[in-house]
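Revision sheet: structure tokens.
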Amino acid sequence: MNRQRSFIGFIVAGAIAVLVIAIAGFYWFFGKSPANLIGSTSQPSAAIFVSKLSPVMVSLQANPDRLQALEREEELSKLKTSLFAKSGIDYKQDIQPWLGDEITLAITTLDIDRDLENGQQTGYLLALATKQPEKSREFVELLFSKRALAGANLAVEQYKGVKLIYDNSQPEQDLFAGAVVGEGFVLFANDPKVLRDAINNVQAPDLNLTSSLEYQKATKQLPKGGLAVAFLNLPIVAKWQGLELPEQLYNSQIISLALNPKGLLAETTFLTSSEIVPTSAPLSKPVGALQYIPASAGLAISGSNLSNLSNSDLAKLWRQATATIYGSEEDVVSRLAKPLVDIQKRWGINLPEDIFSWVQGEYAIALLPEKEQTNPHWIFVVEKSEGVEQGVARLDAIASSNGLSINPLTIDKQKISAWTELITATKKSDAKEGASFSIETKVRGLHTTLGNYEIFTSDLETMDEILTIKDNSIIDNPNFQDSIAAIPLPNQGYIYLDWTKSQNFLERQVPILKLVEVLGKPFFNNLRSLTVSSYGTETRSLKGGVFFKLHNS
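Predicted:
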């Protein structure tokens, strides 16, 4: 039974689209931010309508019409037109005059009637702030009168002083309900029961989200001037997905979006009742290992101390998140980190045991994608520390056990160890003479010492690029410098993705990404790079951010 195909579906889609397109896209089209485009400094007011058992609540805390820069590309206009096309509603005439500075969408309940025999019927609530209550009441009346003319059976109900209007349809048909509550909000839901619950939540404050201690702790993490915020109750999100998590460390997550002079910063905090102990000391500046990563890198990961990575709180978060989204950690790793999976299979190694265990100092990992190649070139830089020499010897032994030879090479007077394989190539020749053969040497990997770092690469060309890098490393790249400048210090390092260089490679690894790009075309067309980092010093929360930099910013 599907009760979610009504007009509420268009509004839900529109609310999400406003968050994704209007916020994430407008700023970088034109390289400057309107001075008056500042979000709210407080938590979403509509949280009083949302149950504290809600798995997800998302709020835009600015009027969409203040994002006027998008109008030049007509993205927002197209969104408004398509959103209300089937309803006979004119956005500019019927909604714009009264729409305020908050749009909140929440999943209020996993099952509206709590009857498992008829399937799970998720409850959706949309709250629109109104600055002119009378005009918003006129809109609700107009909306439902148009539905009545289209053949819907309407019902009007007074519930605890609030007038509810909803389709009095058969259970197998679409349901849709609306109401204006007080002087502040217009509510829409996919069932009148959802509206009644929302009103109950206001009148019994201990039921609503603002009374949740977890939510109160989360909202204290919100920065000032955020344009959007999302709150997730993680155990209930997992239940919504029908998953039993093998490990539950983090209880909730809050995400905020805010404009930055160079782009958009999405900050997130995961909260837990357990004490979080960092695996390594925070870094006050980018690691020196990045000086050996070429500016041509499409992906660069840097930090310090991989030896305890599998037991870190960040790793526990990864396992919880991947289990919630994909059902298993192995599935997402095989999709998103295929090059690492391929390396492990080809070499017969276990990354945590054979490599990460002896990396206690700085490190940098990079991929250098090329359009004509399926597999990108790779670089691994590790600072010399106790155990590194033995670790390198162990990798040499693994290479030897896989049938590779360890040969010394010299490039520009730099001594290099190469893992090589002899391959027999057959050439066609005259039938009387028979086939001819040639022996080719294939390089499978190299490593060398530069300064206080041991450097591993996939091929000779990449090693040569490192040896001649001079002032063309990623640390000298202005785009990289702008991106890490948006991330607070100290932090645990960076994951930097140059979208323009990695797009083709990522699309091959994750085919569904092409569909995501189509849905978020204004954003992805202008995306230049994204940078991820973990920071913060509180013992019961894990804080991090993602900085999106687009062209012209």
